[in-house]
Design brief:
The protein has 412 residues and is α/β, with parallel strands linked by helices. The protein is built from 16 helices and 14 strands.
Length: 412
């Protein structure tokens, strides 16, 4: 079964085409990313995978909107030179990443008018992402009539959080009336790496307590008890939690109002500061951790401070989540920084012997391709580096959803 996975961002579109074999093995046939949608200088990168070989094509193109981007992606998949299928009829299902599912969705679902209505109702909770996600869905329905479209929500994995974890200490009516609560994000990534870590440990995920640590430009952490999320660091929006590339993370809630008065900032200006000018960038004028390490090595004190703040906050969340879970079987690092930055991993795990964590620094600093473990043989808590693959997780959930819906036999 061939499943196309679509991930539409506010100004980008990512796609991957998988062949989901009967043995549950997934083979990646092609992937691509279309960037700077709506700008004059858009960019397309398309890669074909055949065995151990891959062929990459990159070109610049004016892509006015997501609809044209979707058409371009499909044309790349069926083109004689760049394609991996003969016709769009060979695509059996389309899986879509949807950022905000609110409280309505705890699992992936086949998309119908009710699902689209619910996605639209959550526009106010994810104004940059849900509209683009819905556009991808509607264009997909035009391009692939009669083929099931499946929505996989970033928020669905976190729906197992208890009220004590997801509610804010605001008047309760704000929750019932305006749905103000913690939703969490990166759920597809947290679920994927938790499942992979359990497999690598040779244990049932439903018998493990894990702390998953997703560190990229956006960062989040998750406390997972026996396969279910008990708490996560991002909140109603992706702004809270640990500091990120350009986002503040947690802070005193009185600061925004104070800034608006003292710095004479309007709401739009303030949101821009909190989301795009803060975090690592706010501290040292750099948002990419590779650049920060380089600056730190050259003696830049603010770059050093940014690293210290970043790892300190992650360490605090580890301690908090260990208390929530009662016991921890493993820490799992993932995403761009988590998978590739041995300095950050070492600083995060430093002095965590109180939790029974002992690092093998030689394994941590090796240039091996993850997944791999970085704990010592004496460590009572395992520490793993596991690459995330949100698109593969979406494809798997799409396949499972179709199977449960009784449609799989008709599509194979």
């Amino acid at each position: 079964m061939k499943i196309l996975v679509i991930n539409t961002g506010s100004s980008s579109l990512k796609y991957k085409l998988f062949n989901m074999e009967a043995s549950s093995k997934a083979v990646l046939l092609a992937d691509g990313i279309i960037e700077r949608i709506g700008e004059q200088k858009g960019k397309l990168t398309h890669t074909i995978f055949k065995g151990n070989q891959k062929k990459r094509l990159a070109r610049k193109e004016n892509i006015k909107n997501h609809k044209l981007g979707m058409h371009l992606a499909v044309n790349m998949l069926i083109d004689r030179e760049t394609g991996v299928i003969d016709d769009i009829s060979q695509i059996d299902a389309v899986g879509h990443r949807v950022v905000q599912g609110g409280e309505k969705f705890t699992t992936a679902v086949i998309i119908d008018n009710k699902v689209k209505k619910a996605i639209r109702e959550n526009f106010t909770l994810a104004p940059l992402h849900n509209p683009a996600n819905l556009t991808g869905i509607e264009v997909s329905e035009e391009l692939f009539p009669g083929i099931p479209n499946i929505a996989v929500f970033d928020t669905q994995f976190h729906q197992t959080m208890p009220e004590k974890a997801f509610l804010y200490a605001l008047p309760y009516e704000y929750y019932t009336k305006y749905k103000i609560r913690k939703y969490g994000f990166h759920g597809t990534s947290h679920k994927y790496v938790a499942t992979q870590a359990a497999r690598l440990m040779g244990k049932d995920k439903d018998k493990l307590n894990l702390i998953t640590i997703h560190l990229g430009n956006g960062c989040s952490m998750c406390a997972i008890e026996k396969g279910k999320c008990q708490d996560t660091s991002m909140g109603m929006t992706p702004l809270s939690g640990i500091m990120m590339g350009t986002r503040t993370g947690d802070m005193d809630p009185a600061i925004p109002g104070y800034l608006m008065e003292q710095a004479n900032l309007g709401t739009r200006e303030l949101n821009n500061v909190l989301n795009n000018k803060s975090g690592l960038k706010g501290i040292c004028d750099l948002s990419d951790m590779r650049d920060i390490h380089e600056a730190s090595a050259k003696g830049n004190d603010r770059a050093k401070l940014a690293i210290e703040m970043f790892t300190f906050q992650i360490k605090k969340y580890i301690g908090a989540y260990a208390a929530v879970l009662g016991s921890v079987d493993a820490l799992v690092f993932t995403a761009g920084i988590g998978e590739n930055d041995d300095i950050i991993r070492a600083k995060v795990c430093e002095n965590l012997s109180i939790m029974g964590i002992e690092m093998n620094l030689q394994k941590n600093s090796s240039k091996a391709i993850p997944p791999f473990s970085i704990h010592s043989k004496n460590s009572s808590v395992q520490v793993w580096v596991v690459p995330t693959n949100e698109e593969l997780e979406i494809a798997r959930q799409a396949l499972n959803t179709i199977s449960q819906d009784g449609r799989q036999d008709n599509l194979l």
